[in-house]
Every structure is written in structure tokens, then in C-alpha cells.
Write a structure and sequence with these properties.
- The chain contains ten helices and 14 strands.
- It is of the alpha+beta class.
- The chain folds into three domains: 7-53, 2-Layer Sandwich (Uridine Diphospho-n-acetylenolpyruvylglucosamine Reductase, domain 2); 58-173, Uridine Diphospho-n-acetylenolpyruvylglucosamine Reductase, domain 3, CATH 3.30.465.10; 180-291, 2-Layer Sandwich (Enolase-like, domain 1).
- The strands form four sheets. Strands 4-5-10-6-7 form a five-stranded antiparallel β-sheet. Strands 11-12-13-14 form a four-stranded antiparallel β-sheet.
- The radius of gyration is 19 Å and the shape is globular.
- The protein starts with 6 loop residues before the first strand and ends with a helix.
- The relative contact order is 0.12.
């Protein structure tokens, strides 16, 4: 199958792009890496009248420090997460996530911002962004607004973005010193979308867990934080019994869907197992950070 006919526009600046979106509104779709958009066009899931290719907006291709955070522009490719010194120093969980994601050919084209805006419930980057407390900046002709990624999703492939808005960047807060992290998932094959996955970040306060941030993917209509699990962990001594109790709570609280890849019951079982694995890995990294 091939796409329906559409008008192809290629702005070279952010102001030009937002003007196009203001004119065409919901009839327009944005093309960056195209790793989600092109299949949707070919299968006619997406039927835009106008396709707005933003790859010539060179001002949106960057990774840079920004007020205690790492800002990444809208056309920055996913592969850069694995070889950027700033990422390695301030948000190494992103490099870990990259190892779980897709294949090199896809990483060479796919964008970080595109994955977050697409909001596939089984994708790694939305969950990592939520765990980190990341924010996106959305532009329109009316101005710019900042949206926490945790507030970006309102359902299955649905976001709070308006049709006339373009996300110019995502900003990831730098991880605190001594932070341990983990990204674990189960997929049928390496590079496939996850059947289930858990992201964990932990900071120790002496022997106790001082801070805990957890998010999951593949276990609901969108990636989301595991707030109850975080509360159970904070102020506690890390132990296998604690992790097992937290894993049980996570398994019972998530609302996965049945599909052709796995049943909801199986995904809940995965949620428990992956939570324990992720907590154990994050704690080990945190202990290493505390003694280094």
C-alpha cells in the first residue's frame, strides 16, 4: 500500500514551520526521522493533506547543556545518545536505553523527540523521559509552552499537543551524583518493541534509599510513573524482600492490554519480574557510585 496524495513542504526555520502548521492545522503532520510516520503513511493509518519535513531546520539539531539539564533538539538522531560525552556524563540512562532500542539503521534515522512525541506505549524513551522528569518545549505562532513528559500522554497514541504545535526540544534534568539506574525489558527479539519494560533510578542516603524514580512501558496505554512503588522504596533499606513486595504492587497496579504479542496476564507477570531486576541493577549501580 502507498500513501494518499499529500502536499510536501520543507521549511528551513522554526518560524516558517509554525506558520505552516497554523495554516493547515490538523491536516498537517510533521516528518523528522520518519521511523513511525512513514509506515503509518504507507498503511494509510495517517492521511495528512500536508507533510511538513523539518529536517532542514538545522537550528533543531543539537545536544547541549542547559541550566542543570541536557537539551536535545527535534531533529537530533537517536544514535547520538550512545556516543555523546554530555549524555554519558549527565544522563547515562539514555545511553543504556539506546542499547535496548531498535537497530542501528533505525537509530541512524529516528529522532529522540520524535519517539517521545509519537508516544508508543512500548517504546523506551517516553518512559526514560518520565522517570527523569523531562520536559518538552512546544512552539506555535502564539508562542512556546513547556510540558512535562509525564503530562504529555492522555491515552493510546494520544498527546496533549495541539495540531498547530511543533516540539522543538526535550530537556532531560541531569541525574544526581551517585544515582544508580537501570532499563530492563522483555521483547521477542532484540530491537523489537518491548512486551514490557521498567526504568529505575535510585539515589542512596547512607544505607537507605533516599530517592526512587520508576516508570514502565508496554504495561498500559502509555508509559507512566510508578508512584506507589517509589513511595514504598523511599526511606527503606534495600532488600530482596522489599523488592519482591514492590514488584507485587507494580504487577497488580498496571493495566496492560491483550494483543497478538502477549496477554495482559503475561505482561503483569513480566512487570513483577522486571521490577525486581531493574531495582537490583539500579541499587548495584548506586552502591558503586556511593563508593567511587
Amino acid at each position: 500500500m502507498k500513501p494518499v496524495s499529500f502536499k510536501y513542504l520543507k521549511p528551513t526555520g522554526l518560524e516558517e514551520a509554525t506558520a505552516i502548521l497554523a495554516e493547515y492545522g490538523a491536516e498537517a503532520r510533521i516528518l523528522a526521522g520518519g521511523q513511525s510516520m512513514m509506515p503509518m503513511l504507507n498503511m494509510r493509518i495517517a492521511r495528512p493533506s500536508v507533510l511538513v519535513d523539518i529536517n532542514e531546520i538545522v537550528e533543531l539539531n543539537y545536544i547541549r547543556a542547559s541550566d542543570g539539564a541536557v537539551a536535545i533538539g527535534a531533529v537530533t538522531r537517536q544514535r547520538r545518545l550512545g556516543d555523546d560525552d554530555l549524555i554519558a556524563a549527565q544522563v547515562p540512562v539514555l545511553a543504556t536505553a539506546l542499547k535496548c532500542m531498535s537497530h542501528p539503521q533505525i537509530q541512524n534515522r529516528g529522532t529522540i523527540v520524535g519517539s517521545i512525541c509519537h508516544g508508543d506505549p512500548a517504546a523506551e524513551l517516553p518512559a526514560v523521559a518520565i522517570a527523569l522528569g523531562a520536559e518538552v518545549t512546544a512552539h506555535s505562532q502564539a508562542g512556546a509552552r513547556t510540558i512535562p513528559v509525564a503530562d504529555l500522554y492522555r491515552g493510546y497514541y494520544r498527546t496533549t499537543l495541539e495540531p498547530n504545535e511543533l516540539v522543538s526540544e526535550v530537556k532531560f534534568p541531569a541525574m544526581p551524583p551517585g544515582c544508580g539506574w537501570s532499563v530492563v525489558e522483555i521483547s521477542r527479539r532484540h530491537g523489537d518493541l518491548a512486551l514490557a519494560g521498567v526504568v529505575t533510578m535510585i539515589v542512596l542516603d547512607g544505607k537507605e534509599i533516599g530517592q526512587a524514580r520508576l516508570a514502565c512501558f508496554g504495561l498500559g496505554k502509555a508509559a507512566h510513573r510508578l508512584v506507589e512503588a517509589e513511595s514504598m522504596l523511599t526511606g527503606q533499606l534495600a532488600s530482596g524482600d522489599l523488592f519482591q513486595e514492590v514488584a507485587s504492587i507494580v504487577s497488580s497496579s498496571v493495566k496492560p492490554m491483550d494483543d497478538s504479542h502477549a496477554s495482559a496476564e503475561y505482561r503483569r507477570a513480566l512487570a513483577a519480574e522486571l521490577t525486581q531486576r531493574s531495582l537490583s541493577e539500579a541499587i548495584e549501580r548506586a552502591k558503586q557510585g556511593a563508593t567511587s
